[in-house]
Amino acid sequence: MDIAAAAAHDRLMRLDHVVLWTKDPQTAMDFYTRVIGLAPVRFDEFRAGEAPFPSVRVCADSIIDLMPAATAAGIEATTGVQGGAGHPLNHVCLAMSKAEYDALDRRLQAEGVDTSARLNQTYGARGWAPQGFYFVDPDGNVVEARYYE
C-alpha cells in the first residue's frame, strides 16, 4: 500500500511503542531527553519505584520504553516467548523536520556521538527521505534520524 492509499484507508492503527533494553535507564533517559530532545514519560514514577520502566514520547501516538535489562527474565515469563527478551533489534528510525534533524546532528556531535554513517535517498514510511544518519545510544541501540521534504 503506497502513502496515498494508506491515507485514503484512514487506519486508526498506529505504532504504540518500541522497547529498548538499557543497562541504566537514568543514563538512557538523559540521552533521549537532553540529547535527542524527546519528552520523558513516567520517569518520576520510575525513580520513585512506582513504575517498572520509564519511557520517552516520540509523538502523540508513540513512545519508546527504556526497559532495564535486569527485567529480561520477567519479560520472557510474561510473554511466554523463550529467548524473546533482549532479542536484537536492527534499528529504530526517528523522522523529523530538517531543522530538528540538523539540531539533533549538532547535539549528538557535541556529545561525542558519531553521526558519520550517512544515507542519501532512503525509503521509509512517508516515502523517500533525502538524507538520514545512524548513531548509537549509550546502550548500543542503533537509531536512525531522517527528515522528509
From TrEMBL:
Keyword Ribonucleoprotein in record: no
GO molecular function: dioxygenase activity
A Pfam family the protein falls into: Glyoxalase
Domain VOC span(s) in chain numbering: 14-148
Gene3D superfamilies reported for this sequence: 2,3-Dihydroxybiphenyl 1,2-Dioxygenase, domain 1
Alphabetical UniProt keywords: Dioxygenase, Oxidoreductase
InterPro entries associated with the record: Glyas_Bleomycin-R_OHBP_Dase, Glyas_Fos-R_dOase_dom, GlyoxalaseI/FosfomycinResist, VOC_core
Protein name (Swiss-Prot/TrEMBL): Dioxygenase
Provenance organism: Mycobacterium shinjukuense
Top-level taxonomy: Bacteria, Bacillati, Actinomycetota, Actinomycetes, Mycobacteriales
